[in-house]
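Mods, move this if it's the wrong board.
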Amino acid sequence: MFLNGGGMRGGPLHEQLQGAPLCCVARSAPKYHYFSVGDRFPAMHEGGSATVVGEVYDLPLTVLRDHLVPAEPPELELGVIELEDGAACLATILRSSYVDSPELTDISAMGDWRAYLASR
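Not the wrong board. Structure tokens:
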């Protein structure tokens, strides 16, 4: 599971991973838009040219079902993204119905949630 926001180490949702091991720090393929949603959490959406920094975890599906997904905001849904090395990976992505939301700030140029938060 590719995490790029609150589920990463030190984030407010990290404990929802129930101790799942970190596999690696990774980047997405350069094919996404990356947004701040009301400065509350980040969201990826296909169709751009940004790479996104994240962490890949070996997350059991029961943990995904019982802990992480219920903690995610309604603007996000499960999807499959492409990593920089071409691998497919589960991730939470922005629901298409929210793409025109006035709450979105494009942070694609930064591509890193922690760096964005530090810059505010």
